[in-house]
Sequence to fold (341 residues):
Amino acid sequence: MMHLQQSRFVCAIAMAVVVVAAARPAGAQTVTTGTLSGTVVDPQGAVLPGATVSAVHEPTGTKYEAVTGAEGRFEMPNVRVGGPYAVTAALSGFRNQTESGVNVALGENRVVDFKLQLQAVSETVTVTADVPLIDPTRAGTAANISKETIENLPTIQRSIFDLARTSPYVNSSPDAANNDTFISIAGRNGRYNNMQIDGAVNNDVFGIPSAGVPGAQTGSQPISLDAIQEIQIVIAPYDVRQGGFSGGGVNAVTKSGTNTFSGTGYWYGRNQNLIGKIPAVATPSNPNPADSKIGAFKDQQGGFSLGGPIVANTAFFFGNFELARKSSPVGFSAAGSSRQT
Fold:
């Protein structure tokens, strides 16, 4: 039997050393972070200008600070995706108030409001944050796929597109040759979509594969799922930071190390024995047709990831390695008996 050997070697050794500086990062025309904002008021609801609000990303110790303005509002742009955060508001003459368990999704403007009580004795009020049902700051229809969802949802191809189908706006279909799978977002042709990884465009500039990403014709994925922190699906956003596409946007950010060493190791494999035969369709002329056999093939994928601290609360590292081997028959029939020559 004639086979097409496909081999891909994905070595995403993204030794992403993240140095946390106190300086405020510059804004970019992409969405790779989130925002924390809110209002600080007194017990009567009057705004409190000059209050200091700090947010600590607990896994890494990264700290962000802001001061409320004349209208009592504060804003912390470009904060890390994920969490949890511990957000504290403080002002002289008032009790400190802390909201814990605050998580920030990719591209989200997370609103955290405070009502400070007058300070009679030295004490701290701690409030556990709840996720609001409606986000009034969202710039268009969007769906976020969190790290926990990526780790728990099953996927055959270990593909970003498999997870994107969790959004009701996304439909996955094979191309005419059944060699490539592409996604349509809100009914738009897949070639009008946009794929970004850490803000970098990852589209196929030649427009050859239907999936619209480099290497799709060989079955390779844009990036290993074990290296992804969160995925965002946006449909026709009116956020000025996102553009260059008329379909949908698939926006992914990669993981970073934390103050704790952690890693993953995995190996997946499947072949024709895990599929079985294709049931035949009975016809009046042939009421008992034989089931079709699947030609011999194999699809194997393995790798590992590792992250941790270089300097606690300051610098971190994260690396991912993935290797895949695939062998499939080339032909017109399922068993490869009428293969191409």
User: Anything to note?
Assistant: Residues 28-128 form a domain with the Immunoglobulin-like fold (CATH 2.60.40.1120). The two ends are 11 Å apart (CA to CA).
